[in-house]
Design a protein that fits this description.
Blueprint: E1 18-28, E2 36-46, E3 52-54, H1 56-74, H2 86-93, H3 97-106, E4 111-114, E5 117-120, H4 127-138
Length: 140
């Protein structure tokens, strides 16, 4: 997917007000978790209203950072019975083991960190996640 080069603000309608900014830091407050700051972000922002859009690369960076941050905190909350193996998740969701790893890295499948490894949380291995994964990995 290609980045769009914004010139006019789609939010407030200001002509020629969109400016590309890089090296931005944003603070995120996920519900039920401690806040986390993500740096090195870039995007296009309006000089009039201040609204804007993160680049696709920055969106992926944000998703990954939030997933990693929440996994670290979930590792202290989730009991072992709620954790599945990657192979078990792959079988339940009808995708490959690599697909499970990719979904966890991208923040599309919740996981915990255990001994430096990502392990999926059993309650998030649902048909909805499986359908999303299948559509993503088959190119639909």
């Amino acid at each position: 997917m290609r980045e769009r080069n914004w010139t006019d603000c789609p939010c407030c309608g200001a002509k020629g007000a969109m400016r590309r900014q890089s090296g931005q830091t944003e603070r995120f407050n996920p519900a039920g978790y401690a806040p986390v700051e993500v740096d090195g972000l870039d995007g296009s922002f309006c000089t009039s209203c201040g609204d804007g859009f993160w680049s696709l690369k920055s969106e992926r960076r944000i998703s990954s950072a939030l997933a990693e941050h929440m996994a670290g905190q979930d590792s202290q909350r989730i009991v072992a019975a709620e954790i599945a193996s990657v192979k078990e998740a792959a079988d339940a969701m009808h995708i490959t083991v690599q697909g499970v790893h990719k979904m966890m890295k991208e923040g599309r499948l919740r996981y915990v960190l255990a001994a430096g490894h990502r392990l999926p949380i059993r309650m998030y291995m649902t048909p909805a996640h499986a359908g999303e994964a299948a559509a993503t990995h088959t190119g639909r």
